Known about the structure:
The radius of gyration is 19 Å and the shape is globular. The chain is an alpha/beta fold. It is 43% helix and 12% strand. An eight-stranded mixed β-sheet has the order 3-4-2-1-5-6-8-7, sandwiched between helices. The protein has a domain at 142-306: Rossmann fold (3-Layer(aba) Sandwich), CATH 3.40.50.150. This is Sugar O-methyltransferase. It comes from Mesorhizobium amorphae CCNWGS0123.
Amino acid sequence: MHTDPAGSFWKSIVEQKKGDVSAALMNDDIELATKLLRDPSSTMFHYGFDNLVSDFRDALKNGGDAAQKQQGAVFHIRLVYLAEVIGAIRLANPESRPRAALDTDILIDGIEGIVGGELSFPNPFPNEFGIASKRGVASYRAINSLYQAILLKRYAAGMPSPSVLDIGGGLGRTAYYAQRFGFEDYTLIDLPTTGVAQAYFLGRTLGDDQISLHGEERAAVNMRIPEWLPEAPPVDIVINVDSFTEMSRGSAETYIQWAKENAKLLISINHEANPFTVRELMLAAGLSPSRERYWLRDGYVVEVAEL
């Protein structure tokens, strides 16, 4: 069975870019591992699933004010897109006169009015770059994860106590927002090294009592390794964001087949620039996914299949 969430591609990334943290963990160097986990912007440990990496930090530093303003504008327009797609503000019309600049906190007020609660952009790490707001520093990944959790909430409407399996869940930001939105049965399945990052972030933001590592009793948010998949219980929703097409084809096919047999809904948010697409795999598995643009990131598509 192919269960590696990213095949040899991500194994090579771990070896090439994340060797310092991996070595500290494998050698039980708790002091060094703790130091590196507390400041991911000093390493490449979050490479591939978050912007808190030394390359991004150095690029911003070397680019000066111009680079920081440019990136800040990119993040701000994503918050605008989020407000537009959920109906918190009107959709801009390029055929009309330009819209006045939108204040970040006013956008957040509108988004909170739609989701029905106060938002939070937790920043447990130093040097996190984003747009300043009354709810914390809103980074690129945090804004996207908030939208993904809103999508989960929308698709889970009508499901009592919905359960979610997040394949390749990144740092766990989507899991964080989902838990804030009331999801109490959320499982992330990922490489062990990524699971360490998830555990640190979610432990800091949700609390240790809300998370469960592989081999522990289940909690509201659970982190599991790929080899656990055959014993995973059925779930309501399987979601994959930006990793199915980064895996080997066999690994992606295995996850899609598992979802077909064990879930009610499969949500994919992926690009189509790699040798195979998620749509191809879904159709080959006998699924009929819907298809719409992913508003917050150009080149990505949201595909949802009822199972």
